[in-house]
């Protein structure tokens, strides 16, 4: 935060006399009587001219010396290389992130990292390489430090640069925006640096993790040069250009490429070896530039000051002093490109034209989309059209003369495509830059022909951009009145700005090189399909002469969602930055996809199709497949193969993981490699990929490979399938009945999106604010479980624990009166309900097989063996019918106390069927929260796992009760969730205070001026007296609704109450997020909320890792656990967030484990919500990232062991308790320790990895942890007995909070 100062005349004169260290190459001159400050280095520092002027022979000797007269400045030893020999470039398959990380690691001293998709992989790689001891071109191991946020990473980056290090980092989207203040500082100080950005959409009306240029365009004003790579190969090469150019110019560089489309595309590239990089850096220009950077560093042996405060007398001049650096930056980039071209044989230019030399129409574009345009250009030129594409690589600084020179003189029409949207502007950034350049050129030279220019948007959030879209842009230029501000690739039926489909390049026409073989693999999230295909493409690229490309698309579910792998290989270079359009080979790894998705829309007629199915004969398959699918198969006539891959996987010990089975089938049918060689290579890749998981996992995968081919069957498609009649779609679908007022959204938006048809939706069907109605997950019915639980009534004791632990609310108890069961299905058995208040009712446990994910938690949790897992196909029809009936039964929520374990599960869960992983440890907490307080719940949710499984459009798992009440949920950002939630709570309190005042004003008004009914007066009186007590206020609020509706026109004052009637209900505000938010990026805000004293609740879902971004270390990660960003095991202990919160003395704090102690978590939530101040609940959440050896079904046993060994203590600290001899604020709910903490560690791969890799290190760390666990438990026992240790403050009174 900058400090604003009032400058006195005296202090202003002091600033004016300061010697400025502005590094301008040519010193200013004295003119007249004005005093001019020279661009000299600070006293004691080395004299060094600007890098662009460097010649080794010109470097003056250092001016700083010690008492002995020798220099205090250490010389820089440039990388040395042996005499250069011709080097054959190494070809390797990798994605854009890895291609970039190789260069960044090679030329950097330090890196400060923080996870953010899709840039995280670069940070993971440099951390891994550093942990392995890999050296860079300077012979050093890079220092890699994970920070608490992107703000912290940028600050540390700035500091490392100020210390003279060569530093870098990796980020995108909101993370890049958090770096803006430091970006200004780094640029202002003319510091060489490269920031690698996987350009990504910004969170606006919604969050999107996918790629476009919104983030990089939001920082174009920061003073950084901006270099754009258009492909995976360019990401590798231009990363080096950026690092070289920043040294040449002293201008920091943003090197960016398209998130996902380039960052996650695997392609065959030619790598630049370290010896070539060393040879480049040994040139005098770079050796001197690095020396210049080092000698400018903060160092007490040659001190100077930087970051001063300047006044209006000099700030402007100093800002302008940097102009020469930017003026010459273009030429320095060109030189760096020439050097990289000389080393690689690949030529690059800041502005590069491709197309007809006499082109009349040109598209100007940045990023991966240029490759699609180039394909379109080649296609159109072959048809006789005069077109071209101008690829922009250097966006800042912009060199107008060079840009104009790159455009053929024959061009008369220009279309500029931006991958961003700048609402309210006259055009997007690239368009404005191009338009300004063309217009200024025409003003300078009136003889130049006028060029017609239009601008448009494409590809936001990785929206597909095909060669046909580029053709549509060229066709728009040919129109009589071209659209000047258009979009392409969507249907905009609101503002009518979208371009129509291309005529010159119709669907089905390929622009790919001849011989390109395309493949599609339909998989399920977490089934290993994506990982297997990554290995397959690497095997092909590394062991054949074929070029290879792979890209992977996902839906929004955490696991169990749809993944589609797009693979291409062929004899020519593949540069197609779009999804496979016509697959020669298609594998569908889950048979249910055949009915749910249009899987064959991209299958080439006569191609190969492999279906993983339990129906492995054509007769059984015919009964299963929908008529529509059979007709499509008959029309396409593919070579059809069937395999029961699930059976093969189970027989080989892999459970549901069919990926290696299907991959073996692919190599067998594709013929890309001799089968014997393919199997050997596949097994080798398996050993490498799964070695972290242990030899047993490797052996099981090898067995699956050996068993796969014998299970494959080729079948003929019956000719009569093509003659079947397709049934007419029902005009009044069941969803209309199920969803009520949500029907329009569900039918027009949700259903197409869930069927992966969202690309076809027009603009008009969407809410511009991004709002989504509640309860849309009810229609998903994914049926992803292989086995589902079935109730055994004879064993059931009606404890409801199965429902309590279910992560997806897919199993529930039902209470019914005998009359309710009159129309029950014959299979809907029920038993007499047990318990107080349940006399005369019937009881049943019912599962929804379509919504169950098959995690088996319920069967493991059941103490009575009352659930039995059965194959889903054997029970799907029967149990679905039973579920539909059970769903219509009345909810008897008042029969038992909802604050008991059993009673809580008789409440309707208002969070159901989320997109969380099977066995998720987070969702049971939030589901329970909705059962306790759901009808009055407001949730501020931090970005993370809980915002993705809880808020990925169109799937909203938060639903409503019969009255239409339910959780109101919102996500702001990652870092600000605590403040966001505090703002919600404060705003709500303020509005209710105003309403309370208005009610009192109505009640105190004379009856003759406010003639309200007695019923209304009585209800308002009761509400006014108890407005802050939800048990009373919310009941009265319901009574008031019809009364206010009836009497709203009696007086304006009553009308005001009617207009504010939604605030009669007292809400419960909860701030929810994961440990990455609470312990790291959002801790500052969370700490402020803890200190605020407001009546707000905080729920931390602690998976002890950044589970949403792939498992990176957080401050919640325990010592010795191996995680991404902690490849060598975490060396520091876990942060004790509970102790920090308890130190305030007036914050309710509870540490809970739902799986370990059901009653304790219910009690903690109830106490926390009742407490009239800040409450903090720390919730242990087992995660798939922990690598529990027996799977997530054992999370209950694992959680109990974590509690029993003291690894995760259970306690409650309640400041509302009055301390005396028998009552203490601190309650230790873990009564005693038992078991060995090492036994816990032996079950989880996150600890086992270090034991296998460095057993002595792991042993030492585990001993330290065991000792600290016992020490902490002894401390807690002391606190529980009333001993000292926690600050005590007076508990806030409820009324004071209002």
From TrEMBL:
Keywords: 4Fe-4S, Electron transport, Iron, Iron-sulfur, Metal-binding, Oxidoreductase, Transport. Pfam families: EKR, Fer4_7, PFOR_II, POR, POR_N, TPP_enzyme_C. Coiled coil: none annotated. Residues 787-816, 843-872 form the 4Fe-4S ferredoxin-type domain. It comes from the Eukaryota. This is 4Fe-4S ferredoxin-type domain-containing protein. It comes from Volvox africanus.
């Amino acid at each position: 935060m900058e400090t604003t100062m009032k400058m006195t005349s005296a202090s202003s004169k002091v600033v004016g006399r300061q010697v400025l260290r502005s590094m301008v190459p040519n010193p200013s001159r004295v003119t007249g009587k004005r005093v001019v400050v020279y661009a000299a280095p600070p006293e004691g520092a080395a004299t060094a001219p600007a890098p662009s002027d460097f010649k080794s022979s010109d470097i003056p000797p250092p001016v700083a010396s010690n008492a002995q007269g020798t220099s205090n400045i250490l010389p820089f030893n440039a990388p040395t290389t042996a005499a250069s020999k011709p080097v054959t470039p190494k070809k390797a398959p990798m994605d854009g992130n890895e291609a970039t990380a190789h260069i960044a690691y090679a030329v950097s001293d330090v890196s400060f990292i923080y996870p953010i998709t899709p840039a995280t992989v670069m940070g993971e790689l440099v951390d891994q390489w550093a942990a392995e001891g890999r050296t860079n071109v300077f012979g050093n191991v890079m220092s890699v430090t994970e920070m608490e946020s992107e703000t912290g990473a940028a600050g540390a980056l700035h500091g490392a640069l100020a210390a003279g290090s060569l530093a870098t980092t990796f980020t995108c989207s909101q993370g890049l925006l958090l770096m803006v203040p430091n970006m200004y500082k780094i640029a202002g100080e003319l510091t060489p640096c490269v920031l690698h950005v996987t350009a990504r959409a910004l969170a606006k009306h919604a969050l999107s993790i996918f790629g476009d240029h919104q983030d990089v365009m939001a920082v174009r004003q920061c003073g950084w040069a901006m270099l754009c790579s258009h492909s995976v190969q360019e990401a590798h090469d231009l990363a080096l250009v950026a690092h070289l150019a920043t040294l040449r110019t002293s201008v920091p560089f943003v090197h960016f490429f398209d998130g996902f489309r380039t960052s996650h595309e695997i392609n065959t590239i030619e790598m630049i070896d370290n010896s070539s990089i060393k040879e480049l850096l040994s040139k005098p220009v770079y050796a001197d530039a690095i020396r210049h950077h080092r000698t400018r560093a903060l160092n007490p042996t040659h001190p100077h000051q930087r970051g001063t405060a300047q006044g209006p007398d000099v700030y402007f001049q100093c800002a302008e002093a940097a102009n020469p650096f930017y003026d010459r930056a273009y030429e320095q980039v060109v030189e760096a490109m020439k050097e990289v071209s000389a080393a690689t044989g690949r030529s690059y230019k800041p502005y590069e034209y491709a197309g007809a030399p006499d082109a009349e129409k040109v598209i100007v574009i940045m990023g991966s989309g240029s490759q699609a345009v180039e394909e379109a250009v080649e296609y159109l030129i072959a048809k006789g059209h005069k077109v071209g594409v101008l690829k922009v690589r250097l966006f800042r600084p912009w060199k107008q003369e060079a840009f104009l020179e790159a455009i053929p003189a024959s061009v008369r029409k220009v279309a500029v495509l931006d991958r961003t949207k700048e609402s309210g502007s006259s055009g997007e950034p690239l368009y404005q830059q191009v338009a300004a350049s063309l217009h200024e050129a025409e003003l300078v030279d009136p003889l130049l022909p006028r060029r017609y220019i239009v601008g448009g948007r494409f590809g936001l959030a990785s929206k597909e951009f095909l060669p046909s879209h580029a053709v549509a842009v060229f066709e728009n230029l040919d129109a009589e009145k071209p659209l000047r501000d258009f979009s392409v690739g969507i249907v905009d039926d609101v503002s009518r700005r979208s371009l129509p489909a291309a005529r010159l390049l119709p669907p089905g026409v390929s622009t790919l090189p001849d011989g390109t073989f395309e493949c599609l693999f339909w998989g399920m999230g977490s089934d290993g399909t994506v990982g297997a295909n990554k290995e397959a493409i690497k095997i092909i690229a590394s062991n054949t002469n074929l070029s290879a490309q792979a890209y992977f698309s996902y839906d929004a579910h955490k696991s169990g969602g749809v993944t589609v792998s797009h693979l291409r290989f062929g004899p020519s270079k593949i540069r197609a930055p779009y999804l496979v359009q016509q697959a020669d080979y298609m594998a569908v790894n889950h048979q249910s996809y055949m009915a749910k998705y249009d899987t064959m829309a991209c299958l080439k007629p006569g191609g190969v199709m492999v279906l993983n199915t339990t129906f492995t004969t054509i007769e059984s398959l015919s009964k299963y497949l929908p008529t529509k699918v059979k007709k499509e198969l008959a029309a396409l006539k593919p070579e059809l193969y069937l395999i029961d891959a699930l059976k093969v996987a189970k027989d080989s010990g892999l459970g549901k993981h069919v990926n290696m089975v299907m991959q073996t089938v692919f190599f067998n049918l594709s013929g890309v490699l001799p089968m014997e060689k393919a199997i050997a290579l596949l097994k080798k890749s398996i050993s490498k990929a799964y070695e972290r998981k242990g030899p047993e996992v490797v052996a099981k995968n090898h067995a699956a490979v050996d068993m796969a081919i014998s299970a494959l069957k080729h079948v003929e498609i019956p000719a009569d399938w093509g003659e079947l009649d397709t049934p007419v779609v029902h005009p009044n679908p069941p969803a209309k009945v199920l969803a009520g007022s949500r029907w329009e959204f569900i039918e027009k938006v949700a259903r197409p999106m869930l069927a992966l048809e969202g690309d076809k939706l027009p603009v008009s069907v969407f809410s511009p604010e991004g709002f989504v109605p509640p309860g849309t997950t009810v229609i998903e019915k994914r049926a992803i479980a292989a086995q589902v639980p079935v109730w055994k009534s004879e064993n059931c004791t009606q404890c409801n624990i199965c429902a309590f632990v279910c992560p997806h609310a897919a199993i529930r108890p039902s209470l019914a009166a005998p009359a309710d069961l009159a129309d029950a299905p014959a299979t809907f058995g029920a038993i007499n309900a047990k318990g107080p208040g349940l006399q005369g009712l019937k009881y049943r446990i019912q599962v929804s097989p379509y919504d169950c994910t098959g995690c088996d938690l319920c069967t493991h949790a059941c103490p009575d063996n009352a659930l039995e897992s059965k194959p889903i196909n054997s029970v799907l029809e029967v149990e679905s019918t039973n579920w539909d009936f059970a769903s219509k039964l009345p909810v008897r929520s008042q029969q038992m106390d909802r604050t008991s374990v059993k009673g809580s599960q008789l409440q309707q869960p208002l969070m159901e069927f989320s997109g969380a992983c099977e066995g998720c440890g987070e969702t049971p907490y939030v589901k329970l929260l909705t059962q306790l307080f759901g009808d009055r719940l407001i949730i501020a949710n931090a970005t993370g796992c809980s915002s993705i499984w809880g808020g990925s459009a169109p799937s909203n798992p938060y639903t409503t009760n019969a009255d239409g009440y339910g959780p109101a949920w919102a996500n702001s950002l990652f870092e600000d969730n605590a403040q966001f939630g505090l703002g919600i709570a404060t705003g709500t309190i303020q509005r209710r205070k105003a309403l309370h005042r208005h009610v009192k004003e109505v009640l105190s008004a004379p009856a003759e001026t406010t003639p309200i009914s007695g019923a209304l007066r009585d209800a308002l009186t009761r509400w006014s007296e108890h407005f802050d007590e939800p048990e009373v206020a919310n009941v009265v609020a319901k009574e008031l609704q019809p009364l206010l509706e009836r009497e709203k026109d009696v007086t304006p004052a009553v009308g005001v109450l009617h207009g504010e009637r939604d605030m009669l209900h007292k809400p419960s505000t909860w701030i929810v997020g994961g440990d990455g938010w609470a312990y790291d990026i959002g801790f500052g805000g969370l700490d402020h909320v803890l200190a605020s004293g407001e009546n707000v609740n905080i729920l931390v879902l602690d998976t002890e890792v950044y589970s949403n971004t792939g498992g990176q270390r957080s401050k919640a990660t325990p010592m010795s656990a191996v995680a991404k960003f902690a490849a060598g095991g975490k060396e520091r202990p876990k942060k004790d967030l509970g102790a920090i919160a308890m130190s305030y003395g007036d914050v309710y704090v509870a540490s809970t484990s739902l799986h370990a102690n059901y009653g304790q978590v219910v009690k903690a939530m109830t106490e926390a919500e009742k407490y009239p101040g800040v409450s903090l609940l720390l919730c242990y959440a087992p995660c798939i990232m922990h690598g529990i050896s027996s799977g997530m079904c054992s999370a209950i046993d694992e959680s109990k062991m974590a509690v029993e060994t003291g690894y995760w203590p259970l306690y409650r600290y309640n400041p509302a308790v009055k301390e005396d001899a028998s009552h203490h604020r601190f309650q230790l709910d873990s009564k005693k320790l038992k078991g060995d903490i090492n036994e816990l560690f032996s079950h989880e791969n996150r600890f086992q990895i270090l034991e296998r890799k460095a057993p002595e290190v792991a042993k030492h760390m585990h001993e330290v942890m065991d000792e600290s666990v016992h020490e902490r438990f002894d401390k807690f026992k002391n606190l529980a007995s009333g001993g000292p240790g926690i600050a005590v403050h007076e508990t806030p009174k409820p009324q004071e909070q209002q």
